[in-house]
Design a protein that fits this description.
CATH architecture of the largest domain: Up-down Bundle
CATH topology of the largest domain: Dehydroquinate synthase-like, alpha domain
Distance between the termini: 34 Å
Number of strands: 9
Strand content: 5-15%
Shape: globular
Order of helices and strands: EHEHHEHEHEEEEEHHHHHHHHH
Number of domains: 2
Largest sheet: 6 strands, parallel
Number of helices: 14
Structural class: alpha/beta
Helix content: 40-55%
Radius of gyration: 20 Å
CATH class of the largest domain: Mainly Alpha
CATH superfamily of the largest domain: Dehydroquinate synthase-like - alpha domain
């Protein structure tokens, strides 16, 4: 699909990736390869209770110096302070995150604090770091965030009910170990919503103002894989092949959006997470078809690519109606997965939508949306449609 703008772009993919069943056992070798010897594991109570963190600790052997297992759903400033203090007391020289997006983002924040000192909130924003941070190995236990390959982190400021965004090349993890055996215990609904987070990353990578042929390729293949394998993962969580394909799709979508950025869907979802605690993947899933309809008059040709990747019948789909077809297909797909279709079902109060619309305008991803949005009333209309 041709671009209607002159292309100039930078493509990043510095993370070393190891994929395969039981590749978690290679974590000690990766620690050694980074020139490190004192590994500190970061995880949450659920992952620890499932025995997954213990698998990593065992694989690390004598290089394991401690574990922090109190990460929460939305990574917070306080958690990062607490975990960093413990890791520093253990003399950690490499961090190993074992979990989903919140655990990984917590660890990215810790990597900054351990190297730079000070408070993590002092580093919010874009590209303020001037040197590599504490080495970080990611072992994801969900298949949606793609955080193992991105330079983004989102940290919740609990005191002000907002999410702080960090965009730093120097926090891209050094290594990602993609082991599908660590995702088999993920419950069906969490499998579905985190999987749709990956789908959203891929779709937004295609329609942002920073998209490129490189990111299109990654994103389109990721969408194909999510469509094919996410339903299998939801229906049979022990299907290791499907779990592995979904994990790869998540990583590929992560590479795509790390380069092409995300846009309005994520800006709105971050707001809902900050104000009302809506899980990120769920918010993305509900909002995505409504944002597609909002954007379709300016990027219909982009949605032709999405329709093709989704496997839709292309005989009657063109730039004029691709957005409608894609939005309808997304809603049908998520409904089949059992994901709630309305924000009202996700606990968002109707009387909070006006404030949410105003807050969304301050979110970083807004600048990459293909359709300029400067009026909170436009955002409010989308929220109301999704409510």
């Amino acid at each position: 699909m041709a671009y209607d703008r002159e292309l100039a772009f930078i493509y990043r993919n510095p993370t070393r990736l190891i994929y395969g069943e039981n590749t978690v056992n290679e974590v000690e070798q990766e620690v050694t390869g980074l020139g490190c010897s004192r590994a500190f594991v970061v995880t949450d109570e659920g992952v620890a209770a499932a025995g997954l963190a213990q698998r990593v600790e065992k694989a690390l052997g004598k290089r394991h110096v401690g574990t922090f297992d109190r990460c929460i759903q939305d990574s917070s400033l306080q958690i990062i302070r607490e975990a960093s203090d413990i890791a520093r007391s253990k003399g950690a020289d490499v961090l190993v995150s074992v979990g989903g997006g919140s655990v990984i983002d917590t660890t990215k924040g810790m990597a900054i604090v351990l190297k730079e000192g000070g408070k993590i909130e002092d580093f919010a924003g874009m590209q303020s770091l001037t040197r590599p941070q504490t080495p970080h190995i990611v072992i994801p236990t969900t298949a949606g965030t793609g955080s193992e390959v991105t330079y983004f982190a989102v940290i919740k400021d609990q005191d002000h009910s907002r999410k702080l965004e960090f965009s730093e090349d120097h926090i891209i993890p050094n290594v990602g170990i993609l082991d599908p055996t660590l995702t088999v215990g993920l419950p069906p609904m969490l499998t579905a919503t985190t999987g749709m987070d990956a789908f959203c990353h891929a779709l937004e990578s295609i329609h942002t103002t920073q998209s490129s042929p490189m990111t299109d390729a990654m994103a389109m293949r990721a969408i194909e894989m999510v469509m094919a394998y996410l339903p299998q993962c939801v229906e049979n969580g022990k299907d290791l092949f499907a779990r592995g394909q979904q994990l790869l799709a998540s990583t590929m979508a992560g590479i795509a959006f790390c380069n092409a950025q995300v846009a309005l869907v994520h800006a709105m979802a971050h707001t809902l997470g900050g104000l009302f605690g809506v899980p990120h993947g769920l918010a993305n899933s509900i909002l995505l078809p409504h944002v597609v309809r909002f954007n379709m008059d300016v990027c219909g040709d982009r949605y032709v690519l999405v329709a093709r990747a989704m496997g839709l019948d292309m005989k009657e789909i063109d730039a004029e109606n691709a957005g409608v077809a894609v939005a309808h297909a997304i809603s049908a797909f998520t409904a089949k997965l059992g994901i709630p279709q309305k924000l009202s079902e996700a606990g968002v109060p109707e009387d909070g939508l006006v404030n949410a619309s105003e807050v969304t305008l301050t979110q970083g991803p807004m600048v990459f949306n293909p359709k300029y949005v400067g009026d909170p009333q436009e955002i409010l209309g989308i929220y109301k449609n999704a409510w």
